Amino acid sequence: MPSSSLTAYPLRPARVHEACGPSAASFALWTAALTGGDVIWVREGWRSEQLNPLGFQGLDPARLILAQTGDQNDTLAVGEEALRDGAAPFVVLELTAPIGLTTGRRLQLAARAGGTTGLCLIPEGMGSNAAETRWHCNPVFDAQDSTRQRWSLIKNKSGTCEAWNVRWDPEAHRVAVVSPVRE
Amino acid sequence: MFDGTQRRIVSLWFPRFASDRVLRAHPQEGPFVLTLQQGNANRVHCLNEAAQARGLQRGMAFADARAFCPDLSSRPADPAEDQRFLALLRRWATRWCPWVGFEGPDGLVLDITGSAHLFGGEAAMIASLTARLTRAGLAVEAGTGGTRGAAWARARYGAGGPLDSLPIAALRLDPETVTGLQRMGLRSIGQVAASPRAPLARRFGAELLLRLDQALGTRPEQISPEAEPPHYAVRLTLPEPIGRTADVMAGTARLLERLCGKLTDHQTGARVLCLSLRRVDGDFRAVELRLARPLRDPARILPLFERGVDEVDAGFGIDQMRLEAVTVEPLPVEQIAQTGTRDPGRLDDLITRIGTRIGLENVIRYLPADSHIPEQAFTIAPAAFSSPGNGWASPRPRPVWLFPPEPLAVTGPRPPRQFVWRRMTLTTGRATGPERISPEWWLIDEAWQSGMRDYWQVETVQGRRLWLFYTPQNPGWFVQGEFA
């Protein structure tokens, strides 16, 4: 029986977290909207999928700065730089290949030095052990609501793993937990 | 203190300035003209001596000129480049005297009062000046006089002889006045000077008398020397070569201190900086720094150099450092605000540092654009050269991800009940739509060749929410985006 409030959310600041699954982008945007301040989003420039600022839920596109890199090495370097600097309180890194423990730890240290929250969007099953939490985000069909998602906390360094059904509440500008419908 | 009669002015006139400049760079024989588009006609802007000898003249239609002279070669004129070249000549001419100004688009004026003796007298100085210019390939006429007007007249209408005998056109008058004076029978400056002033002023206005007085020296005329453009480069030469990063950074700090002082004096900020390091073996290493916004604070610029300096191979050591602000932008002094806790410059510094790795043009920001076409409803701009845009509003929900349309193997104008996308079999739970979007006919877009589109927001039972469209004019279904 899932609880009515998210345990490891909002994300623990000054740490790097991970999100995977089809709705990972939403997870990043919603979290960025709640964090406040500028957001730096690092992704590889060659990818055919493009972010559409008109589709952002919660986050004002004016707060987003996108860094388009050539490969994963650049992504990690730019991400570490941004995390360590702390000028933007939230940094999103889109990764395409698994990263090792050393790399993950480096990002973690950079986030701690800059007081910045980092979020790596990873392909499924490619997480790094250094991550503070890992979330699997799936959209859920609902007859009334088109923002409903299922967030499963699949790794948590300082707590238990759980899963919640959530939706974005545009009036309150927050993530709301909804109780699952009993079948 | 000099009064007007003791001044000595040299006027330089380059009769074929534009064509001489081009011929210096691209030497060629035979008649040559520069053409300039004026209105609908292509006209002769400037021509060389050979073309003049064939009877061509300025202002004639280029087609006529070619008919007169079939072996004529030509190039388009570039007045802006001519201006730049004249500015270079002006700067060069300050070797003779400090007061050098422009005289029209093809002349210079030098106030050589008190400097001619340094070059062996006035005649020797003029001879040397014209010889140097002629050797550089520029036809030049020099005239000297006690006033600017007299020098101008002698440069263009004969260097020798008294001023009185020169034609009235030498008074820098407009053509109508010249014609009018000639109709009155006044042909030389002497004749005009001798005639009664009041009727002349009544008939031709004050301009004529002003020019006459300026030529004769009864009314003063200034020469405005151009201010030297500020030079944003500093250099540090070292007695012993250095090689450690910390040493180079310390040298850079010294250079920055001086450069930023200069930038502050002129209320400008550097946008692109170039640090060139000369090694002992004569080789140069350059570190370029592109800034996300104009800066002149040494404490903020210095750390940004660290990465570039660290990568430089010092070889056997560096014995000279030169720091130049390649691109400079105005940066007015700002009032120090008492409110505002966050420093907006921090983010710019971060953008600069990211930009040094991946290129400043790859750090971008989204700006709203006015279009119904989903992929053109926003533009991207380098974050360093733009400010955040407002007015993000979409009347209909739009997907977070956009990708090139992926075809679906289904038919019919209604959204499919079941379809296969990316090897996933998906069942439609709810479809919202259609939202019809027509291509913008005034823009040619390859992707919209298939005509208008009916967009559907399809929520599948499996969870994925997709943005599908149907093209009624060329029946087919495509997936173009995903609502996350």
Automatic annotation (TrEMBL), chain A:
SUPFAM superfamilies according to UniProt: P-loop containing nucleoside triphosphate hydrolases (SSF52540)
Taxonomically, the superkingdom here is: Bacteria
- What is the recorded name of this protein? Protein ImuA
Source species: Pararhodobacter aggregans
From TrEMBL, chain B:
Concerning CDD domains, the annotation shows:
PolY_like (cd03468)
Work out whether the entry's keyword set contains Transferase.
Answer: yes
First-level EC class? transferase
> Which Gene3D superfamilies does this one have?
3.30.70.270, 3.40.1170.60
- Which Gene Ontology BP terms does the record give? DNA repair
Q: Where is the UmuC domain positioned along the sequence?
A: 16-152
Can you give the residue ranges of the DNA polymerase Y-family little finger domain? Answer: 235-334
Q: Which InterPro entries match?
A: DNA/RNA_pol_sf, DNA_pol_Y-fam_little_finger, Rev_trsase/Diguanyl_cyclase, SulA_CellDiv_inhibitor, UmuC
Q: Which reaction does it catalyse?
A: DNA(n) + a 2'-deoxyribonucleoside 5'-triphosphate = DNA(n+1) + diphosphate
Keywords, in A-Z order = DNA damage, Transferase
At the top level of its lineage, which domain of life is listed?
Bacteria
Which Enzyme Commission number(s) are listed? Answer: 2.7.7.7
Q: What's a Gene Ontology MF term here? A: damaged DNA binding
What family, per the record?
Belongs to the DNA polymerase type-Y family.
Quaternary structure note? Monomer.
Instruction: Describe the function of this protein.
Output: Poorly processive, error-prone DNA polymerase involved in untargeted mutagenesis. Copies undamaged DNA at stalled replication forks, which arise in vivo from mismatched or misaligned primer ends. These misaligned primers can be extended by PolIV. Exhibits no 3'-5' exonuclease (proofreading) activity. May be involved in translesional synthesis, in conjunction with the beta clamp from PolIII.
What is the recorded name of this protein?
Answer: DNA-directed DNA polymerase
Species of origin reads Pararhodobacter aggregans
